Amino acid sequence: VQLQASGGGLVQAGGSLRLSCVAYGSVNSINDMNWYRQAPGKQRELVAGFNTVGGMTNYLDSVKGRFTISMNNTRNRLYLQMNNIKPEDTAVYYCHVQDRWSKVYWGRGTLVTVSS
Predict the structure, then answer these.
(1) Cα 35 versus chain centre, distance
(2) What percent of the chain has pLDDT over 90?
(3) Distance between CA 1 and CA 102 in Å, rounded?
(4) Which of 19, 26, 33, 90 could pair covalently with 78 via S-S, beta carbons 3.0-4.6 A apart?
(5) What is the mean pLDDT of the chain?
(6) Phi-psi group of 9: left, alpha or beta (phi > 0 → left; psi -120 to 50 → alpha; rest → beta)
(7) Radius of gyration over alpha carbons of the chain, in Å?
(8) CB 44 within 8 A of CB 35
């Protein structure tokens, strides 16, 4: 599986941004698709996750109510709608998938910079 993320950029605090991730390859083997982020000097953290088997989602507490993860019907595109963005959301955002054999794949990150 190959992943290509896009949609990052510079946004003012309170604004919105939508990240996209396209998966290529054995997309039917994907169980979970997730967004991670890594801010400067901090560890990478899970922001939002989507389980393709049950359709369940989960979110980092600090983004609940502001971010929404979704997937298209063909399960090859993952989105992260980011609303009411805060300066602390500044990070490189990574698309991540885990397939049915627990193998994980990472895409290149897309940088989100929030100005206050």
Answers:
(1) 2
(2) 90
(3) 13
(4) 33
(5) 95
(6) left
(7) 13
(8) no
Distances (CA, A) of 76 to 10, 37, 53, 62, 102: 26, 20, 14, 27, 18
Q: Which of 33, 18, 53, 39 is nearest to 107 (CA)?
A: 33
Residue linked to tokens 């996750």: 49
What pLDDT is recorded for position 5?
95
pLDDT of 45 above 90:
yes
pLDDT of residue 75: 85
What is the per-residue pLDDT across 56-94, written as a single tens digit (0 to 9) for each?
A: 999 999 999 999 999 998 889 999 999 999 999 999 999
53: pLDDT strictly greater than 90 = no
Strands 57-59, 67-71: pairing is unpaired
Q: Which two tokens stand for residue 21?
A: 């991730």
3-state SS track over 16-50:
CEEEEEEEECCHHHEEEEEEEEECCCCCCEEEEEE
Distance separating alpha carbons of residues 12 and 15, to the nearest angstrom: 6
